[in-house]
Structure formats: structure tokens, C-alpha cells
Amino acid sequence: MFRNYWPQIEPVDTGLGWLPAAEGRDNGGVRAMSLRFQLLLLQALIVCAVVLATGIVAASLSERQVRDAFLDRMIGVAQSVATLPAIRDAFDDDDPSAVIQPVAEVIREASDVTYVVVTDAVGIRYSHPDAARIGERVSTDPSVPLSGEMFVGTQTGTLGESWRAKVPVRSAQGDVIGTVSVGILESAVRDDFLGGLGGLVAALIASAVVGIFGAAWVTAIIRRRIYRLEPKEIASLVGSRETMLHGMSEGVISVDESGTIALVNDAALELLDLEDDRLTGRPAADVLDPSLVRVLERGEAGGQLVLAGERVLVARSTGTELEGRTVGATLLVRDHTELHQLLREMDGAQSLTNGLRAQAHEFANKLHVISGLLELGLVDDAREFVERTSAGGALRVPGEDTIRELPELGALLLVKTSHGRELGMSIAITPSPPLPASLRADAAATLRGDLVTVVGNLVDNALEACSAGNRIDLGFVIDDDRVRVTVADDGNGIPPDQLERVFQAGVSSKVLADDGSGVNYRRRGIGLTLVRRTVLRAGGTVTAGRSVLGGALFTVELPLGDLAAVQPLPVFPGARA
After folding, report:
1. pLDDT for the residue numbered 436
2. Fold adopted by 56-195
3. Could you tell me which residues come within 8 angstroms of residue 198 by beta carbon, excluding any fewer than 6 positions away?
4. pTM of the model
5. Of 191, 154, 167, 194, which is closest to residue 76 (Cα–Cα)?
6. Interval 398-409: pLDDT, tens
7. Strand, helix or coil at 444?
8. Mean local confidence (pLDDT), 158-162
9. Which helix (H) or strand (E) holds 154?
10. Phi and psi at residue 403, in whole multiples of 5°?
């Protein structure tokens, strides 16, 4: 069920006791990378990657802003030149460049652009930073602005590669008579962009340094939170914890501050009859029996008897409150049913031992009498003495013929009647017909188990409620489809207002002191609750009332179940036909 995971480890002191330390080298003999270095390296890589990605995005945005700023400037200059009356009127002069060139140069210098070139409708320059180029046709295609549209883009001209904007020049009538081209060299754009990049790079480097130092700080905090354990140490501890939790015979249920189940081991699932093992994340109040929830919340270091279904459990808890604040808690449950059964068997064995000792002493006396009579030659008297004593010794159960087909019940009553005699009380069993021979084997086995539980607890309850001189009557009535069991006594009885309440868990008129087992039993009232749960599970009924003897009366009816032809039920040892 569990993997045997036990790495070769040495202890290390973490401040919480000695914990295992992982091996310092891996299978290849190379020293393993520590968790601290791994965390720092991973976080540093993440910081650097994020800073680098941020820098690339920021640089891209900065370059776009520079280009947009230049573009706005170029378009504004071009449109201003194209709409100047002096420029448009100069197109009708004999020498347009004489007017346009000075104006274009003044505007170029004032606007800090590389060039302002004005051309006519066929692309002949009227202005240029190099005066020698005036009168020449432009080196790039002017068709877009001559068509009346604006052109924006990067082209290579006489001055080199440039980022430029071209707009049409229109006459007073709206006809395109020329173009204005304004541009900035790409090298100038790059220089301007790189000039502002130094501050960004410095900010990114500072961010990376701060991030790495922050990663080192976070690594130190995480290491302290996990008590400076390495991954192999953590895996070893988790494996050991799982092995211990799932290998324990005690049930363990842990809840967090909000009362939500955080951990359940296999023993708890079995003891509490919880079929779904995916209980983590569910509120404890929705899953556990109310009695267990009360123990969990209140805290019970000494242990308390509770019922979970038909199981008697001892529950311990650390409590959900500490110094006035709500905290997580752990509930430990241990099966007490087996211990009760063992104690009952020990009592029965002791009673049988005492009875056998008394019977052996009695038989020895009888043998002495027989031996004496034979020695005296009184054979007839010896024969008569044997016939008078052939009914058996003290270990007969009253009414044993009635329960001869229920050996477990017969053994139980044998012990109870012997115990009753020791306490000065008598137990009488009312005869009744035997069980049907056609009762199915599995139904008979279930019935026998239920009867042992029901009769055992009811008789124990009567023995504890009565005192020396009292009488207990046990009756069995068997009809076609059910068994009716009555347990009556002549004790103090049950108050009328308590007849229904006595079946509730924890309701009892008896006080049980510490039995020396180390468990602090603060509550009783388990037996009758167990009887009711057993009877209801079998589909029967149980009631409490007042008997004709003046004491308590408990009546139980259990169905016999389905009938089918099976082998006869076994006869309990010692019964007479």
C-alpha cells in the first residue's frame, strides 16, 4: 500500500528536534544543488527575464514615441509650407526657387528637420539643403502627393535614408501644382532614441538588482518557514508521516481554523464508517457525528466514550480554542468495542473458572460419598445417590432448552447468571418455542449477533440498576416472523418522563469512576443507545416501560428475516435434548 521510501539520511538540528538531512551528493557523485541556491537562481532568472521583457517593450514604446513626435513635426512643417501664400504665388514666377529656397531653409532650420524640398507638378526641385540640387528631378517617386494624398514612410534619397512626409501643394482653385517633402534622417532618429535610452537601461538594471535582492530575502523567509529543510528531507518526512498516519490503528481527523477537515487517515474512515475518502475540504459538522463534533470543539485530553454507529469509541481532542482565539484541532478516535468485548470475555472466563472450581470440589465430595457407600457394600444406596445427582452441576443455564440453538447467547447468559448469583440476584428465563429450522443461515447469524448485543447490554443495565435480592426476568417469544425479547426487573424503575430519553447517548443515572486505564470517562449512557441503534439497523423496535415486578421493562422485537431451507442451527454445548 505504501512505498518503502527511506533515503540514506543523517540528522540535522532544525530547532524543532532532530530531523533527517538529505544526502549531499547525487548518484553521479556531484554535489546536489541546495534548495536555497535553487530558489535564488530560479527567482533571479524570473526577475531578469521580466526585466528584459519590460525593457524591450519600454524601448519599443520609446522608439515609437520618438517616431511619432518626429512625424507630427514633419507633417506640421510640410502642411505649413504647402499652405503659405508666398510659396503658392511663387509657382507663377519666372524663377520660383528664388522665393521658395530662402523660405524653405529658414523653416528647415527653425523646425530642426533634415530637409524641406518643394517641387513642381513634375517633380522638379524648387528648394533643397544642397543648392546645387535645385532644378533637378527628385530621386523618389512623387506620384502619391501629386495625386492629392499624403505620403509617410522611409525612403532613400540624395541625403540618405530618411523618415519623411510628403503633402500636395494646391492652387487657389484647389488644383495640385506641386509637392512639399519634409524629412529627418534615420540616423538622427536613432541618435535621438539612443540618447534617451540610457536612463531606461539604468532603471532596468536597478530594478533587476532590487529584484535579485528581494529574491534572496524571499528565499531566506521560505527557508525559515520550512525549517531549512532540503527537498529530499521534506520528501522523507512526508513519506514517514503518511506511513505513520495510514498505519496507525487510531483514527486521526484534523480540522483547520474554520472547522474544515484537512486530514483523515484510513483508520478514521473505518472506525467512523465513512466510505468517501475525499473528505478534505468539507466542514466537520457535516460529516461527523454531533457527539464527535462536540468533543473536537470542546477538547478532551483525557478521552471520552462516544458512539459512532454501533461502535463504542474513545475520542480525544486538542480543542478548537486557544487563549480565546480559534485554532485548528486534531481528533483521535480509538475503538473501545474490542476492549469491552475482551473485558466481558475475561469476566466470563473468570466466572467459568470459579464455577468449574466449585463444581470440581462438589464432584469430588460426591465421589467420596459414592466411594464410601461402595466400600460399605451399600451398592443400592450408591446407585440411588448417582441417580439423584445426575441432573448436573451448578453450571446449567435456566431455560437452556429454549436457547439451545443460540450458542453465543447461551454462553453469554451462562456468565450473566453466574455473575448475578455472585451479586445476590436471580436471573430467570421464560421458556419459548425454538427457532424455525428453515431460517436462512445468514439471517440466523445476523440474528444471533444482534441478540448477543441487545441481551448483553440490557442484562448488564439491569444488573447495574438492581441490588442484592432483586430479580431479573428474561423472556423470549418466537413466532413466525420475529423474536420478542423482554428484560424486566423489580428495581427502582425508570421515571415516566425519562422512558424515551434513556436511549439518548450520554443519559445515565449511574456514575463510573476511573478504572485505572488512564481514560477519564466523564459520561455514561452508551449501552441503551447501542441497543437502539442495533435494533433500528435490523428493522426492529425497542421500548422502555414499567414491569409487573415494579421495576424497569425493556421490550425488543427483531425480525427473523427471509426463510429458506438450510441446515439446522448448531446446538450450544451442554444443552440437553
Report:
1. 63
2. Beta-Lactamase (3.30.450)
3. none
4. 0.44
5. 167
6. 444 445 556 667
7. helix
8. 84
9. strand 151-157
10. -110, 25
